TrEMBL record:
Name of the protein in its database record: Quercetin 2,3-dioxygenase
Pfam families with a match to the protein in the record: Pirin (PF02678), Pirin_C_2 (PF17954)
SUPFAM superfamilies tied to this protein: RmlC-like cupins (SSF51182)
Gene that encodes the chain: yhhW_2
Keyword Metal-binding (UniProt): yes
Protein family membership: Belongs to the pirin family.
Residue ranges occupied by any Quercetin 2,3-dioxygenase C-terminal cupin domain in the UniProt entry: 147-233
Names of required cofactors: Fe cation
A GO molecular-function descriptor: quercetin 2,3-dioxygenase activity
Amino acid sequence: MKTVLHKAATRGHQDHGWLKANHTFSFANYYDPERVHFGALRVLNDDHVEGGMGFGMHPHANMEIITIPLSGELHHKDSMGNFGAIQKGEIQVMSAGTGVQHSEFNGREDEAVKLLQIWVIPNKMGVQPRYDQIKIADSAKPNDFQQIVSPNPDGEGSWIHQDAWFNLANFDKGTAKEYELKKEGNGVYVFMISGKAKVGEGELSERDGLGLSETDRFTVEALENAEILLMEVPMNLPRM
């Protein structure tokens, strides 16, 4: 098994006043040649947006974008005509494809919104842009892995243009479960949203990340109550 550990305090950090952003991988003004991506996982941003503030309309193309609110209310608007709000217990998935513009704003004046924004490099370029917003709270699986993203439009959760599977885990202290990878050659990036857990042979605390590759399974054990995001992605990317 090959691993790469990213402690929370080693992430890139930008403080714009209204936006406090932590970048696991190189993004915007933060660049580290050793931390550009983990396989197809290109961006993992941990954002804190103050009340009433947000990102104005801006373009994306040929990227799968997954947004997971952690607290507060995030408002979305895009050039495809979609408009709505998402909160914790929901996720938003957008295939940028041939090109789309969108904005994201904190929908509340009196409370910050905290979110994870994740970019995955797709396995198809130039696809028709699409937007999906689903509620995942109703199908949550305490002390088990809950699939929230896959390559299968008919599968559990939402889907993207990549052989990637995302799972959320809400484990009580002492819970241990084995994760078996879905596809040979994939790796898994584990991000600790909260709590503390042992993943393989490593210990992770809040906001730590651990990439695991060259393995087909590993065990996750909660050392205290923990919320964990597992992102399984291809490690070898074909030339486009």
